[in-house]
């Protein structure tokens, strides 16, 4: 083979490899490259911020406007009002909304609970030493009727308590000043509060029946998905890369946490991380719906598969 022939053969091989890696023709550009996305400042959102810092969104032709929210429940009105295109989904509030005919769809999974990734905490000097002593007390959660309240309700096992909304970054201060008696904290806010010496952990509600529970996903409206299938596919492709990165490189996660939580690297370097699934598991999500039915968050059984958006390219489904 002549030198010129070798060069031509090498170029053809590269073209073939490139085509194989991208699955053939490059994807069509998104219908709307500028999107608004709501996320809560917890470890669950790390893949989203990795997708930004690693350039995955840019590679897909997307420009993402980030809106920090307290939790998925507060994003639902913004999705319906079209001030957000996609948002972090709290599964409990999403399923409650769906039961009440709000046309939401789950388009991807973000995060699942793991031991010590969440904690039920009290002030360090609190006389409360066991869950039963929370009778009549005020428990802080990031949003009401959420996965947080479901988990704490299960842990309370009939002990009557009052839930009060408070964003995660404000919970340690609210506990220290007597505005809350206890709270459910997610990482990295759990480690931050415990490390400060202001808090003491009472237990982990995300164990037992709630172990490994799906905690957060991505949601949008049915109409937005139908009119923006290529935009959604681009978002999913970027997040798929980031979810895989988060699942395989925890140090990357720990390094990105300070960029959106504003917490010190000394704190984020000690956090306990949950799981970053690389695919949506309908059976795992069904566990959330079944627990909700047991705790009367839902009025009737629900098949969660009805909420799951088609995998890709289903603009008119």
UniProtKB/TrEMBL annotation:
Signal peptide: 1-20
Gene Ontology cellular component list: periplasmic space
Subcellular location: Periplasm
Pfam family, one: NMT1
Domain of life: Bacteria
Residues in Solute-binding protein family 3/N-terminal domain copies: 34-257
Coiled coil (UniProt feature): none
Xref: InterPro entries: Solute-binding_3/MltF_N, SsuA/THI5
Entry keyword set: Signal
Subcellular location, principal: periplasm
Cell membrane among keywords: no
GO biological process: alkanesulfonate transmembrane transport
Family, as annotated: Belongs to the bacterial solute-binding protein SsuA/TauA family.
Name under which the protein is recorded: NitT/TauT family transport system substrate-binding protein
Record organism: Nonomuraea maritima
Lineage, top ranks: Bacteria, Bacillati, Actinomycetota, Actinomycetes, Streptosporangiales
